[in-house]
Amino acid sequence: MDTRELRDAYRRLARWYDLAEALPEMLGIGRLRRRMLARARGNVLEVAAGTGKNFRFYPARLNLVAVDLSAEMLQLACRRAAQLHRGYRFALMDAAGLAFPDRAFDTVVSTLSTCTFPEPVRALREISRVCCPDGRILLIEHGRSDRAWAARRQDRHAEAHERRFGCQWNREPIELVREAGLSIVQAARHFAGIFHTIEARPG
After folding, report:
1. Alpha-carbon span 179 to 162, nearest angstrom
2. What is the residue-wise DSSP string for the chain?
3. Contact by Cβ (8 Å): 203, 128
4. Domains of the chain (ranges, CATH numbers)
5. What global pTM score does this model have?
6. Residue 124 near residue 172, CB atoms below 8 Å
């Protein structure tokens, strides 16, 4: 999908996006969110924030800006932040062209989104650009499993899954992060090798 098609897809998906993610949450994505987002510090940018499912896992008193390509998703995220009494800021923005100066944030977060970026390497380079040299880039992603049976299934249904959800679920997040020039601090696979937690530094 290109950027326009992706925006249109998430306009349609916004209302029931949280329901569509119910299975990954049941599998333990919430635990990964809690573990990773506890590391966020200082001025934080969340890229492709979606409906704000990460918000309840952040430490208190963060200065956080949440951006997303979809106005409909951001509306839901604003509502969730209000319910949590979090004074976050929001902006409509494409991950491939972040309207922030270099080195503007201490922590940059993106979860379950690299699979949707039309230009994932460009988006990851933007994430790197806006992060302080000694900052943290925290990613929770999903991609092609390292288990043959699961990878075959993902490959077989990849086109249909992308048409429905705007998600290319058989990408290789670690390879994309390396291609973008980020320095990986630590990385691990979870749940049949499909989900990744990655902490990185700017390249």
Report:
1. 22
2. --HHHHHHHHHHHGGGHHHHTHHHIIIIIHHHHHHHHTT--SEEEEES-TT-TTGGGSPTT-EEEEEES-HHHHHHHHHHHHHTT---EEEE--GGG--S-TT-EEEEEEES-TTT-SSHHHHHHHHHHTEEEEEEEEEEEE---SSHHHHHHHHHHHHHHHHHHS--TT--HHHHHHHTTPEEEEEEEETTTTEEEEEEE--
3. yes
4. 3-201 (3.40.50.150)
5. 0.93
6. no
Instruction: Please tell me the distance from the alpha carbon of residue 23 to that of residue 31, in angstroms, as a whole number.
Output: 13
Cα 153 to Cα 161: distance, rounded to the nearest angstrom:
11
Mean pLDDT on 182-202: 96
Task: Give 60-119 pLDDT, tens digit per residue.
Answer: 889 999 999 999 999 999 999 999 999 999 999 999 999 999 999 999 999 999 999 999
Residue 137 structure tokens: 């880039």
Burial class (CB in 10 A: 0-12, 13-18, 19+), 105: buried
With tokens 């980020």, the residue in question is 182
| Residues in CB range of 91: below 8 A, 6 or more apart | 65, 66, 67, 99
What token pair was written down for 84? 């949590």
